[in-house]
Specification:
The chain is α+β, with helices and mostly antiparallel strands and 332 residues long. The chain contains 10 helices and 12 strands. The chain has 4 domains: 82 residues, Winged helix-like DNA-binding domain superfamily/Winged helix DNA-binding domain (Arc Repressor Mutant, subunit A); 52 residues, no CATH class; 86 residues, SH3 type barrels (Roll), CATH 2.30.30; 78 residues, Phenol Hydroxylase P2 Protein, CATH 3.90.56. The strands form 3 sheets. A 5-stranded antiparallel sheet has the order 7-6-5-4-8. Strands 10-11-9-12 form a 4-stranded antiparallel sheet. A 3-stranded antiparallel sheet has the order 1-3-2.
Length: 332
């Protein structure tokens, strides 16, 4: 088993030397490898065992022979077949399996901007597998690529990257008719399998967000672009979801879970600020420091009877009101 650190670099250098037609000594091969590693800013090899293991692995893994010739106390090495290269051999079954599973993961991004190479690479891999068994996918991801509005992702992404304004035709569920907006696009974010555009609308400086599934069309607008200094990692750091009012600050939220139910929250935290502040034989008190928004309320409501809001008072009352209205739907 070769030392895996820097192995790909070592393999490439050894392959070039062994098929050059010249027989190199172990010291020369080590010097060639270390020269390349130094150029790449990687640690050099100091053990002769590493080189010997690499040569043995090439023979075993790629089913080739390396000629070893003694010249006094020195041994030289070269391929028996000077036309052989480890990079011109067919993929073995393990290679095919690993590449196929990697492609299954990459294909979740297929259709995204600048990802056309994924389809091309997948087609080439399928050609390599022409006469081999099909590899079944072992990983499944949620995908929003086929959701309504995803055709707008690429032009919006390009507009953000190139810092250009765009004209949107937009119609929310509450609007009877579409409206036309000139926006300065800054950021695209996915939440709950939906994508949202964050931007400034017209001359306004407050940040707005628009779900892509409610955008009807996108085209370039010939209006000077106004950039932003918002750090979006920080912007989303103290919230669940995507919505917040301008100037809104995070609050300390205390929730009570039955102890046997908290394990589901512990293994899948709601937010990075989540921490246990009290634990008994019956319940667990959890504190979050987050923005009070619609998505937080939806998260709480999704746990139904298994969570109680203790504070802040406004959030507790809001959840109580929404639960009461929900119960009225079932009262005769």
């Amino acid at each position: 088993m070769p030392n895996t650190k820097n192995y790909s670099t070592r393999l490439r250098v050894l392959d070039q030397c062994l098929r050059s037609g010249h027989a190199y000594s172990g010291k020369e091969l080590t010097d060639f490898i270390n020269r390349e590693l130094e150029l790449r800013g990687e640690p050099v090899i100091t053990s002769r065992t590493t080189l010997m293991d690499d040569l043995l692995n090439i023979e075993n893994e790629y089913h080739t022979n390396i000629i070893r010739k003694k010249h006094g106390r020195q041994t030289t090495y070269q391929y028996e077949d000077p036309n052989f290269s480890v990079f011109s051999t067919e993929l073995n079954e393990d290679d095919i399996l690993h590449l196929s599973q990697a492609m299954n993961i990459l294909q979740r991004f297929d259709g995204m901007p600048e990802a056309d190479w994924i389809s091309e690479l997948s087609a080439r891999l399928n050609l390599c597998m022409n006469n081999r068994r099909k590899v079944r996918s072992a990983v499944g991801f949620e995908s929003s690529l086929y959701n309504k509005g995803m055709e707008h992702f690429t032009p919006l992404f390009d507009a953000i990257r190139k810092k250009t304004t765009v004209e949107l035709r937009y119609q929310s569920f509450k609007m009877a008719e579409p409206q036309t907006l000139i926006v300065h696009p800054y950021y695209l974010k996915q939440y709950n399998n939906r994508w949202f555009l964050f931007c400034c609308n017209g001359d306004y400086t407050n940040l707005s967000n628009y779900p892509l599934d409610r955008i009807l069309s996108v085209k370039l607008a010939h209006v000077p672009y106004r950039d932003t200094d918002i750090d979006f990692d920080e912007y989303f750091a103290d919230m669940i979801g995507v919505s917040r009012r301008n100037g809104q600050e995070p609050e300390e939220v205390v929730l009570r879970f039955p102890k046997d139910q908290y394990k589901y929250v512990a293994t899948k935290p709601w937010h990075g600020s989540q921490k246990v502040i009290e634990e008994t034989g019956d319940y667990v008190l959890v504190q979050l420091k987050v923005i009070h928004n619609y998505e937080l309320e939806q998260k709480i409501l999704s746990f139904g009877q298994y969570v109680e809001v203790l504070s802040p008072k406004q959030l507790r009352e809001q959840i109580n009101d929404r639960l009461n209205k929900s119960l009225q739907q079932y009262n005769p």
